[in-house]
Amino acid sequence: xxxxxxxxxxxxxxxxxxxxxxxxxxxxxxxxxxxxxxxxxxxxxxxxxxxxxxxxxxxxxxxxxxxxxxxxxxxxxxxxxxxxxxxxxxxxxxxxxxxxxxxxxxxxxxxxxxxxxxxxxxxxxxxxxxxxxxxxxxxxxxxxxxxxxxxxxxxxxxxxxxxxxxxxxxxx
Length: 172
Prior knowledge:
By secondary structure, the chain is α+β, with helices and mostly antiparallel strands. It contains 4 helices and 6 strands; from the N terminus they run αβαββαβββα. It has helices at residues 3-26, 36-47, 78-87, 160-171, and strands at 32-34, 56-64, 68-76, 118-129, 132-142, 149-159. The chain has a 6-stranded antiparallel β-sheet, with helices on both faces. Strand 4 (118-129) and strand 5 form a beta hairpin. The radius of gyration is 16 Å and the shape is globular. It starts with a helix and ends with a helix.
């Protein structure tokens, strides 16, 4: 893991820990739920390609602290998902069977269950979007009784100035 990815991972872990603490205090899922349309629009804006046409069970949630975390889940055919990956100028065309950086969080969100997937493949990448650095983690696989691909995506949007401060603090 490169130094840059470690920093993003540490910041993401901090956001998840903060979310867990808030969840434990409130017993409510942290952040704001997104409608299927809002989740689809955010994904398209971030990756530069629309969610597959045959996508169903589209869910999303946005959590903002020092960074913005967006969780999205949808189901679609494998063919449509490959078309989605190829249409995006920011995502790689092929997922790695050894990349499993996305895990199930302790939360009250019934649709966030990436640990239930089998035959998984993942992707981890990042890019610059305006004044933010976007880290994207994808995990796709099959549910035990499903025939469609289930896709989980986490986007972490971090302001470049925050990243610069984190890198400077770490080098001191």
